[in-house]
Input
Amino acid sequence: MKVKVLGAAKKVGCSGFLLTSSGQSLLLDYGIETNREMIYPLHVRPKEISALLTTHSHLDHIGAEPLLYIDKNIKHYATKPTIQVSEVLLNDLLKISGSKLPFTQSEVRSLIDNSNAVRYNEPFKVGDFRVTFLDAGHIPGSAMIYIEEGDKKVLYTGDMNHLDTRLVRPAVKEISGDLDLVITESTYAHGDHKDRLDEERKFIEYSREIVEGGGTLLVPAFAVSRAQEIAEIYYELEFNDEIYMDGMALKINEIYLNNPDFIRDPEMLRSSLSKITFIKDWRDRRKIVKRKASIISPAGMLSGGASTFYNERISGDDKNGIAIVSYQVEGTPGREMLDNRMIWIRGRRAKIKARLEQFEFSSHSGRTQLLDFFKGISGSPRVLTIHGEPESCAGLANDLNGMGMKAVAPSLGDEVEI
Ligand SMILES: [Zn+2]
Output
């Protein structure tokens, strides 16, 4: 059995791994990177793929999948929320960057038509592979993929979170059997998270300070998962000022409410969303940007979407505020804002006068959770540490080697045989 690294080598973006054994191949995720330019994982010939398995519906895991469906039908397996959210995100991607993409709506349709909904903990066969999806605790419907073939056992973690969050249950903590290979994410392997409840309280306090001080608060948040979690934090910690939500979150909200098994507390989600006013058009946007309110809006890294508009309007006034609530990838406007307090407004670089705070509501396991997870893994598997900045991937590999595993942060195109 061998694995080829098609992407996410020493970086976050373009996840893709090709697992081959006895002439059959499983493709695990096939994502893109959408920062400054569109970046794709290494090419793989669709006719070589026996099935496509998707861990979760973030673009860095699904964005290149339609490419495989240009003139081929490949069986696709994912959870129901992953399939439904993927359809929304990929069609939205086409709307925003259609001219730059090498596929159209018809390939997205084909991907969705070839999709089979998988449930957690229910093994199924693809050729000689026995595949089980396990709850990864990252976003609703996210999965780790456990693959058995002959006497070999492989685990691909996708993105995982072992911490308790309001929206989803934590990731599975124990994996049975001696593993031969683990492909693990390393996003937050460099450190530990701050106490989540503390962060939630600080976030509420900051939100109140801004809004009750007469300002507008912008919370740039991805429509998938983070926007809903922020809504739940506002609800449970009793933030009673006006809240607005913008972007495609509305569609995602519906999908999550229709898949209650994948949500930790569906009733709580429903109640939280009922307190929020949804923005429908530019007239609404221009009106609410002057209100004493909190606005939850994509994109989470300020790389487009309505959050760019709100940011331009509010960042010049010191009574307003911005709350960064997700990981800011290097090279994004959100990262630039955190590092230098600067933003681009219509081609000009401008200093931010509004207050700016970052809160850590990570949906990835931190260092301690990652190491605890590996302490529970039996055998001395080969480990590929991927999906993190270079020092995180290398650091995690180092820690795991210290625990008697054979870990390495692979480079793009590397092949590992087990
Ligand atoms: Zn993810």
Summary: The first helix runs from residue 59 to 62. The chain has a mean pLDDT of 95.
